[in-house]
Amino acid sequence: MGILSLGMVLIAAMVPPIPQPPEYHQFADRRSYFGIPNFFNVTSNLAFLFVGIAGLSFLLWSCLSSRYNSFIELRERWPYLILFLSVAVTGIGSAYYHLAPDNSRLVWDRLPIAVAIMALLSAALTERVGLRVGLRLLPMLVAMGAVSVTHWYWSEQQGAGNLNFYIVVQFYSILLIVLLAMFFPSQYTRGADIYLVFAWYGAAKLAEVADREIYDLGHLISGHTAKHVLAAIGAYWILRMLKKRKSLAGELHASYRSL
């Protein structure tokens, strides 16, 4: 995986820069209601805010209650705390962006999303490779996600937009999580739920691409609004997984504690 990671970084550095499309901010549904421009693209971000708050509330409650057996050690909550905090902040940052879409506001949409994905990667490493490995890498991964967004914005400010590192960090991290799920057993039940999380995320990306086509079906909802809802469901599926899962006993899983 280390060789694959290095290869992906080299590819991002060597291939021609992928610029931000000029038409990126031109969304299909620009209707205003109650004085709110781009009403549905703005208000659909409430789904992220609700899921993020629900996730943070669950993590706090699970510390105080014996009802859930979602974590073997309290330290394992850290990646999920950052993840659900980022999901909640995405609801705020994305709403802010959609009020008046431009690159400077898009930073506050993309930044928490990148951090959330890196926190999920840390969680996967913690639960499937080793507790110490995942937690030690958490600050580095979060920083990497943040740098990928700031690098893109800096390149835009220089007049030569480059999305390469942002794309690699986001989609390679997802690929790595899937590979971990395939080849490293989880210490918990519900390990396969991660595939459903990414199925929802994949559906969200497809809806984003079909923004205009979905909107033209009846002018009820646009693809971008649907993207927000579908991605929020994906985040909720992580919360659902945590609520339902149980720890697996056994020497194999106990051995991960020492890694």
UniProtKB/TrEMBL annotation:
Entry cofactors: Zn(2+)
Record-level Gene Ontology MF annotations: hydrolase activity, acting on carbon-nitrogen (but not peptide) bonds, in linear amides; metal ion binding
Protein localization: Membrane
Signal sequence segment: none
GO terms of biological process kind: ceramide metabolic process
Residue intervals passing through the bilayer: 46-66, 78-99, 111-130, 137-154, 166-184
Positions contributing to Zn(2+) binding: 98, 224, 228
Keywords for this protein: Hydrolase, Membrane, Metal-binding, Transmembrane, Transmembrane helix, Zinc
Membrane topology value: Multi-pass membrane protein
GO CC terms, sorted: membrane
Chief site of localization: membrane
Protein's UniProt name: Ceramidase
Organism whose genome encodes this protein: Nitrosovibrio tenuis
